[in-house]
Design brief:
Number of helices: 4
Helix content: 10-25%
Length: 225
């Protein structure tokens, strides 16, 4: 019998390892034989969750269904998840978008909305009524008088850095802070600030150097266009 299928006990539970060089037919044959042997000492109680590791390959939905059916019919286990060492095109695209910094040199004018995936570096001003949105962090080299929304898909770890001036509004995930009251009309346009959600789940505005302490992984502006 070839060793294309193995059942292992790990600290995270039961794992079925399917050799990635074997055909789906070979895997089915060996899996059925192995599970029949396991029935000599059947599990008791409820169905046991199992992880299926498929290595350097991707299964189609039909192939996953075939393996799932065998495990369901031939054992007292049920599949919790399939794990692959291969990244799908969709996952790779999303990872690339989230990992890069999109750099842009422009003035964001009233009524204009710029939205990107990943981090955004804007070199230019945001006029009142203008808006920029990013799924990651936002860094602005210029004056912010419009709306800046970082982590708009719900990333509460996102940060914003720049010159926040009247009448700007800063948003991170679903929280916001406004510089739109009369009290902020006299802010010096040379001051740089940072905005982030703290441990108390509150959006705060602080000195720009605070970013280095709360997000030490943010060290450069690699990538971009």
């Amino acid at each position: 019998m070839k060793k294309n299928v193995q059942i292992k006990g790990t600290k995270n539970g039961i794992q079925i390892v399917l050799k990635d060089t074997a055909s789906i037919e070979e895997l089915e044959t060996e899996l059925i034989a192995l599970l029949k042997d396991q029935k000599a000492a059947p599990y008791s109680g409820e169905k046991l969750p199992v992880q299926v590791q498929i290595g350097n390959r991707l299964f189609s939905e039909e192939e996953e269904s075939r393996i799932e059916k065998i495990i369901k019919e031939q054992s007292q286990m049920e599949i919790n998840a399939f794990y692959s060492d291969v990244m799908t095109k969709e996952e790779a695209k999303k990872w690339k978008e989230q990992d890069q910094i999109f750099s842009l040199a422009t003035i964001v004018r009233s009524g204009q909305v710029i939205q990107v995936s990943g981090d955004l570096l804007l070199i230019g001003d945001i006029n009142p009524g203008g808006q920029i949105r990013s799924s990651g962090n936002i860094f602005v080299i210029g004056s912010i008088k419009g709306i800046v929304h970082a982590g708009f898909e719900g990333d509460e770890k996102a940060v914003v850095a720049g010159k926040f001036l009247y009448p700007s509004q800063i948003r991170i995930a679903d929280q916001s802070f406004g510089f739109d009251s009369e009290d902020y009309k006299n802010i010096e346009d040379t001051e740089l600030f940072s905005a982030y959600i703290n441990d108390e789940n509150k959006l705060v505005v602080d000195d720009v150097h605070t970013i280095r302490k709360i997000r030490p992984e943010i060290t450069n502006f690699e990538g971009g266009r």
